[in-house]
Amino acid sequence: MKWFKNIYLILLVIAFTSCDKDFLERAPGLNLDEEKVFRVYENAQSFQADIYSHLQDGFNRLGNYQPVPISGASDESDAYAGYHGTDPLNSGSYNGNDDQLYNYYTGIRKANLFLSKIDVIPFPNEAVKNAMTGEVYFLRAFYFNEIVKRFGGMPIMEKLLVPGDNLMFPRNSYKECVDYILSDIEKAMAMLPIKRTDNDLGRATRGAALALKSRVLLYAASPLWNAEITNANKWQLAADAAKAVIDLQDNGTPVYQLYGSTVNDYERLFFTRSNSGNNEVIFYKPQGTVDFSNQQIFVWAPKGDLLEGAGAVAPTQNFVDLFEMSNGKMINETNSGYDPNKPYTNRDPRFYKIILYNGCQWQGVTLETFIGGKHRKVLAEYSRTGYYVRKYLPEEVKTKTSVRSYHDWIYFRLAEMYLNYAEALNEVSGPVAEVYSAINKVRTRSGVVNLPSGLSKDEMRIRIQNERAIELSFEEHRWWDARRWKTASAWFGGDMYEMYIDKRPDGSLTYTRKPFENRIYRDYMNLYPIPTWEMEKNPLLQQNPGW
């Protein structure tokens, strides 16, 4: 994407970010005359591009020092001592952690300013005007949804605040917020193009707006909001929205397709852009290529001899246990074939592309994650679980080399839309053929066997939840899925397990599932608390129950 920069943009950014971090504070007076800024198209173009700067990637979201992904606060992973960004969440302390209020409300405020100046901007033509305006409506909806999924209903900031305006706003209801987000999405869909040129990759498209609509409606239909979202057709609306993304066409050709037909393609889709043949990705945050020293790689890469990463994202045994056997059975099912003495044999093909485990090959090195092994020497400083993450790590990007790879954060991809559709349609009609077809398309791409026939609606729901856990792992879905399903207290609270691997004098290995941490999670934590400092600034805000 081309990000245009000039002195006007720099001054504008300074004007927006120099104020005290009160998310309801009005936009301060600009250092430049607004008319001068927006009556020059290049200035307006730069300002609009800067609204994208509030998109956050999820590689290392939490922690100011040695940050880690939010997966470390779910049952997906653990971060060892030193990489402690998720520690407060795991001990039940949420005050200000991942609140993102200032970031996203600032993005919304910028969007409001741009939209207020539409009539004075000298757009070169109507198509450009529509595309740029549609992007801003999309970003405003995206940012507000990020706030709402964290806190529930929050103040809707549609109006551009000016000096003298009332700054005290009560919270809107969750339903009011959803309706407002959907309204912005509809406006965006009507204006955005279906495709982008190579110069504009990463900008919002009609498909991105449709995908956001799918996710918003799916979350709204979920058990967390049953008391507030009561319309009988809510799951059908969610199914229809997901299907609209799947069926989107450009001149008779599907816009999006699952990338490739093998599990190797599943691994590579995270490093491959659309201009290189990846038509699965719908919306992402474009970033330049990265090498091993980049924190997006280094923090996740395994630690130990010849590998030399931080190894701060260690999958838990709780998560590893979710991977099916290659025959499609869960490990605890009768006749699954699971052997506790050979726990990594004959698993879901994606296991070998998502998890680095004892005895596997990585970058020409045999991983040793038994106690005292080369990649698990001291438990306090290495993986506490016996695993490292492979997903998101291009194998060719190694320590002490200059090899680089694309490493973009993906917000929406087609596989999610298939799983959204399967989940919603199962709630509407039960496990009909279309539900099986959607979920099996995702599985087949990676060489995973089809789901067993004859599942009940409840059984299919569980299998869909598990499929999302595997296919969308470490993409910041499980953290929110568990909340909306109201399963987080069972999954994220209590004991987290490691695989304790002991190497005997004769060289044989024993595998023992052991708890390494007891985490705190209560049902009221499904919504974040509004930070105390924000409550003090605005007495009209009401705190979420339980906090």
Distance between the termini: 42 Å
Q: Which structural class is indicated by helix and strand composition? A: mainly alpha
Q: Number of helical segments?
A: 19
- Globular, elongated, flat, extended or rod-shaped: what is the shape? globular
How many DSSP E strands?
Answer: 12
Give the low-confidence spans: 1-31
Helix content: 25-40%
What is the oligomer described by this structure?
Answer: single chain
Radius of gyration: 24 Å
Outline the structure in words.
The protein has a domain at 7-230: Serine Threonine Protein Phosphatase 5, Tetratricopeptide repeat. It has helices at residues 7-17, 34-38, 41-50, 87-90, 101-116, 126-151, 174-191, 206-221, 234-247, 263-268, 295-298, 317-320, 351-354, 414-429, 433-445, 457-471, 478-485, 488-492, 532-537; strands at residues 77-78, 249-250, 253-254, 281-285, 314-315, 355-356, 361-362, 365-366, 388-389, 409-413, 494-503, 509-519. Helix 5 runs antiparallel to helix 6 (126-151), helix 7 (174-191) runs antiparallel to helix 8 and helix 8 packs antiparallel against helix 9. It is 37% helix and 9% strand. Residues 1-31 have low confidence and may be disordered. A hairpin with a 5-residue loop joins strand 11 (494-503) and strand 12 (509-519). The strands form six sheets. The chain has a two-stranded antiparallel sheet with strand order 1-5. The protein has a two-stranded antiparallel ribbon with strand order 2-3. It has a two-stranded antiparallel ribbon with strand order 4-10. It has 547 residues and is mainly alpha-helical.
